[in-house]
Amino acid sequence: MTVAVSVPEVIATLPGPWQQRQLAEVNDAVVRLAQLHGECPWHYHDEDELFLCWDGTFRLELEGREPVVMTPGSVFVVPRGLRHRPVADEPAHALMVEKPETKQFGN
């Protein structure tokens, strides 16, 4: 990456809920941006997944645990192997840090 990326400009190009755009690669990880709205399917990953709430509010529902409410500026790491799903009652945007091979809806 040789230029700065404008997150608001990328948000404006997202076609709808659960669509992702890769913003950057850093070391062995990628930074992705997604619009959240509604319920994502339950899934898990073989690696940790970091969420940073950019705008709006959403919750991370975690199997067997209390949901985590995410507000702008909140960061939470979903541990590998834990079934989870983001749920947003209104549109929200999140940055995720994960491995390049991580599938959007898990394994």
Automatic annotation (TrEMBL):
It comes from Nonomuraea monospora. Residues 37-97 form the Cupin type-2 domain. Pfam families: Cupin_2. PANTHER family: 16.7 KDA PROTEIN IN WHIE LOCUS. It comes from the Bacteria. Gene3D superfamilies: Jelly Rolls. This is Cupin domain-containing protein. SUPFAM superfamilies: RmlC-like cupins. InterPro entries: Cupin_2, PKS_Associated_Protein, RmlC-like_jellyroll, RmlC_Cupin_sf.
